[in-house]
Amino acid sequence: MKGGPSPKVVVCIVYVAAMFMAAMDATVLNVALGTISRELNIPPAASGALNVGYLASLALVLPVAGWLGDRWGSKRILLLALGLFTGASALCGLADSLAELTAYRVLQGIGGGLLTPVGMAMLFRAFPPQERAKVSRALVLPIAAAPALGPIVSGLLTDQFSWRWIFYINLPVGIPILLFGLLYLREHKEPEAGLLDLPGFLLSAPGMALTMYALSQGPVLGWHSPWIVGSGLLGLLLLAALVVVELRAPRPMLDLRLLRDGLFRTAGLVGMCSAAGLLGMLYVFPLMYQNVLGASALETGLTTFPEALGLMVSSQLVPWSYPKLGPKRLIMTGLLCTTAIFVLLSFVHEGTDPWLIRSLLFGVGVCLGHTVGAVQIASFANIPPSSMGRASTWFQVQNRLGSAIGLAALSGILAAVGTGAANAAGVMEPNLTAYRSALLGAAGFLLLGLWFAFGIRDSDAAATLRKRGAPTLVKTAGERSSPAEG
Fold it and tell me: CB 320: neighbour CB atoms within 10 A?
């Protein structure tokens, strides 16, 4: 529409609102599961199907999201995903049985799986590489605030109103953004998108879904469960076959040839390890704070919330720190400082000042926020606009797998060490050692990311470091130049 807001502003508004809604939805359910189980008269263990259905459906559509946006139009697919997610939220609130609620959660997962890669591709197409440090402020907001707000909002809505409001709350966000995007978003199609890579889809969809199922349910059902072993092995076999098929396909759905770009490949691995460490810590620490230190769910949510504030602060600093330090030093410094904070968090005990804990979690947000922001900016430095849809899909696949691997690994540590131990009187008491070991495991993922970060070269990210209109940086000996997109 003529006379409307800037296309860049429109993309930012729609992306941030949609991602905020989807990211918060991922954390609101856990707090309300007990209440849902009681009201629907289902065993607490059965309520896990709500998370499994969401994660499996999300993994099912995630690999094909980039192609759908390229082939049918990024605006059309984004608004379709947003409408599906919002509509499924309303249906979840109206559900009267576990079967209905699970089915509607599956629809939510499909919408959420399409939203992230398509929205990120639109954002990076709208902004040239040299402007992406500034737009990182928009990228970090939903990643930072939404997951931390989720448990707090869920607890308040469930206690004061009903568990159904944890889903209804999406409607006043989703409906206005859907209308706004319908009016002002610009359509974009890739003329060379081609037909659907059917063999790739038939391998990736069940492969991702089975692998995510095994990783998410392994700690619940036990790693020796025939269902977990069978689904995990079959998922890995399908993904291995996918690699072979996609490398031979002329127009693959998951373009593994993008990994030839060393910066995209290395930054993606760093991002994967960072997601594993951060999501793992945000899973383990609240459990430790409640089960060992005796805090309530609301107290725990308020104590961990400074991590989100730290991430928001870092999002304002990255546009300054990224060009000053360069991606390599910024990423490595952030990972090293966050690792040290994770180690300090593992020494928290009943006598620790809560404000010291909040300060440490704020530091996690500031330090790891710089790493996450720098990774997102640098990863796409050399990706041309025509490949942005597939690149953002692959980036999101890696992050999702990283999060699932982190949760599975740290849950395995908790189970191996044992979260309960008998005291001298034979009474079971919480075992602080198990939670400390798991937090050190989260630090281990960050150290692995630090090791990968040694392979990053600032000259490969030259397009994101220079000012608009400035000449390309001269490549150093043995390094290639990085052509700009914009």
Answer: 11
Q: Model confidence over 9-50: pLDDT tens digits?
A: 888 888 888 888 887 776 777 667 667 777 887 765 566 667
Task: List, run by run, the mean pLDDT of 10-residue segments along the chain (486 residues).
Answer: 72 84 75 74 65 76 82 89 93 87 88 84 78 66 67 76 87 92 85 77 84 77 84 91 85 80 90 88 80 74 81 82 89 95 90 89 91 86 78 80 81 77 61 87 94 89 65 38 33
- Phi first, then psi, for residue 188 (nearest 5°) are -145, 125
Q: Residue 52 in contact with residue 145, Cβ under 8 Å? A: no
Q: Which two tokens stand for residue 205?
A: 């969809």
- At a CB cut-off of 8 Å and minimum separation 6, what does 421 contact? 428, 429, 430, 431, 433
**Residue 13 vs residues 76, 119, 303: alpha-carbon distances, Å:** 16, 11, 29
Structure tokens of 445? 């993922």
State how far the alpha carbon of 287 is from the alpha carbons of 119, 284, 295, in Å. 33, 5, 10
pLDDT of 431-465, one tens digit each? Answer: 788 889 989 999 999 999 999 999 988 888 887 77
Q: Are 262 and 455 in contact (CB under 8 A)?
A: yes
pLDDT at 361: 92
* Separation CA 117–CA 384 (nearest Å): 16
Q: Are 333 and 325 in contact (CB under 8 A)?
A: yes
CA neighbor of 298 nearest in space, from 438, 473, 456, 151: 151
Residue-range domain boundaries for the chain: 1-196, 197-252, 258-466
Q: Please indicate whether the domains covering 1-196 and 258-466 agree at the CATH topology level.
A: yes
**CATH superfamily of this structure's domain 1-196:** MFS general substrate transporter like domains (1.20.1250.20)
pLDDT digits (tens, 9 = 90+) for 119-166: 878 887 877 777 766 666 666 666 666 766 777 777 778 778 888 888
CB atoms within 10 A of CB 161: 12
pLDDT in tens, 339-353: 999 999 999 888 888
- Give the fold, CATH level 3, of 258-466: Growth Hormone; Chain: A; (1.20.1250)
